[in-house]
Each structure stands twice: as structure tokens, then as C-alpha cells.
Amino acid sequence: MELEELIKKVAEYSGLPEQDVKAKMKEKEEELSGLISKEGVVYIVAKELGINLLEKMKKRLKIKNIVANMKNVDIVGKIISISAVRNFKTEKAEGKVASIYIADETSSIRIVLWNDETKFLDKFNVGDVIRVQGYVKDNNGQLEIRLGKYGKIMKSDEKITTNIKPERVYIYERNYIKNLDIGMRSEIRAAIVQIFRTKGVLKLCPQCNKQLEKKNNEFICSEHGKQEPKYLFVVSGVVDDGTGNIRFTRYCEKK
Q1: Predicted confidence (pLDDT) per residue in 51-94, tens digit
Q2: How far is 161 from 90, CA to CA, in rounded Å?
Q3: pLDDT tens track for 105-133
Q4: Exposed/middle/buried for residue 236 (C-beta within 10 Å: 0-12, 13-18, 19+)
Q5: Which end of the chain is more exposed for a tag (fewer CB within 10 A), N or C?
Q6: Do both 25 and 79 map to the same domain?
Q7: Residue range(s) defining the domain that contains residue 203
Q8: pLDDT number for residue 234
Q9: Which of 151, 167, 183 is the C-terminal boundary of a domain?
Q10: Are residues 49 and 3 in the same domain?
Q11: What b-and-e string marks burial along 180-193, b requiring 16 or more CB atoms within 10 Å of the CB?
């Protein structure tokens, strides 16, 4: 359903004028710093007004409209990638974890399977369409679905057409800073002990990723001329895990 139709539905079910619904959407977009699609914002505003749009319209939730901390999510998607089961061990626990990546016509998302849940991998193959019920978790800026105690995952007869390709996925083994070496891909658990002052936000050319120069309130690329910038947030500092310390840099592109 298109954005304007969703807004009309919220206005209809809430009894508010459409302009009031749009005003609430604008406030919510500013609160969320524009990190969620307008369609996703409509669902949030509707929920705050006590309206379950999905139940009202009996429509399937699209992956692009999923937002952090949603409960009782029920989605359908085509499997585009399945990761191998990985064993992990920490100071507090050990077990197994694996992932299934699904997509619909709008976006893709990761389904995380823990311990006994990894047995589901024997039932599915890339290309299968599955229905997943669970809750949404924000994992370092990446949304993922977890089954939890009451979640379910099963094959679906629904037809899904998608051109979305799986992103390259790396598996990182937990390690200590003292053991790190050049070229290693590792996961560490450490405390941030220092944050450096940086520019904070880089304004890049969307075609070549070079930094743009601001001239007369316009952003100019030396190769491609006037451009609408792509924003890249940068945080840099030092982390320490008790065995050593290391500098880190985190990049995050605004969607």
C-alpha cells in the first residue's frame, strides 16, 4: 500500500484530519533522525494512536517497514542466504548461532537462530519462502529478528518475487586484543576508554565517494560537479579489554 493510502487509513481509523497525522509523522521523523522509512513512521504513529494497521488492513508486513523493538512480528520472505552454524564461548555462556537472511520485494533482514533453533537449518534451502514470527532486535544499528520463547519459523506457500541479493557476510571469532594481528577478522569485547574529536560527519560524492567541497551553499565534487551529498558518520577512539588496547574507527552511512 502506498504512503498516502496508509496516511488516509490512519486518519480514518483515528478520526484525525490527515494534516494532523502528517504533523505527528514529521515529529516522529525528527525524533528518529530520519533513520526509518516514511512507511515505517506511519506504523509507529498508528501504534501510538492505538491502531494496529496490519490487523485492520489484514496486510502482510513488508520488511522495509520493520523497526526496532517491534513485538509479535509476522513476516514472509524468500531465503537468499544461510550461514553456517558457529560455536561460541564467552565468560558467561557457550552455544551455537546461525543466521538465515530473507528478502521480500522491499528489503532484506537477518533471522538469528540460537542453540536448538539452529536445527531449523535442516528444513530450509536458499530459495524457499518462509514465514517467521518473533521480535525485532537492534544489533549495533542492524535490525534482526529473533524467535524467542514463542517465535516460529515455517515454510510458506506465498509467492515472493525479489531481486535483492545477499550481502557478503563475515563470521567473526571472539578474540582478545593481545592476540590480534594485521589482516585478522575478529570480534572483541572491550570498553571504550577514549573518544577522539573528529569531523563527525563526512559529506561524500554518491558516485565516487570523494569528500565534497562546499561552495556557495552547494556541495561540489572535483570530478562530478554539483552533488547531493551522501552522509557518513564517523566515530574514532580507543578500546581496552584488559589484555591490551587498540584504536577503532566506526563508519555508519545515513540511509
Answers
A1: 877 766 656 788 988 888 888 888 999 999 998 888 877 777 78
A2: 40
A3: 889 999 999 999 999 999 999 999 999 99
A4: middle
A5: C
A6: no
A7: 173-253
A8: 85
A9: 167
A10: yes
A11: eeeeeeeebebeee
